[in-house]
Amino acid sequence: MNIHRFLRLTAQVVAMIFLLLAANAASADDILGYLTDKDGRYTGPTVEDNIARMDADKNGFADVFEVRAFLELEHGKGYEKALMDKWEASARGTSCTTPFSKELYVDKSN
Question: Taking the CB of residue 86, how many other CB atoms lie within 10 A of it?
Fold first, then answer.
């Protein structure tokens, strides 16, 4: 690879990273300003408020399925899909693929 081309490409990548970081910082400032009062105190929803909003079956806690539904309503279908799939697989007991593990997760109370 030509050294000048490599340096130009590197400079472009660094510039893009800088612009992305600057955009994220500006966005964070906007959100922080929206969620604080004139004295700088947080006025946004509490953790309890958000859990209550996620708790669709009103049993007092939000499981991974309710969290996923809430986040997809807020951010669109497929939001953090890989992470949510992993959480759901873990919640269902299907995240371990070793043959003996199924016996550890199967509900034997039925």
Answer: 13
B/e letters for 35-49, b = 16+ CB within 10 Å, e = fewer, are: eeeeeeeeeeeeeee
The model's pLDDT over 10-28, given as tens digits with 9 standing for 90+, comes to 766 666 665 555 555 445 5
What are the residues whose beta carbons fall under 8 Å from the beta carbon of 81, sequence distance 6 or more?
A: none
- CA–CA distance, 89 with 103 (Å, rounded to integer): 16
Q: In this structure, are residues 61 and 51 in contact, taking their beta carbons and an 8 Å threshold?
A: yes
CA 21, distance to chain mean position in Å, is 19
Whole-prediction pTM = 0.51
Say which residue the tokens 């994220």 belong to: 24
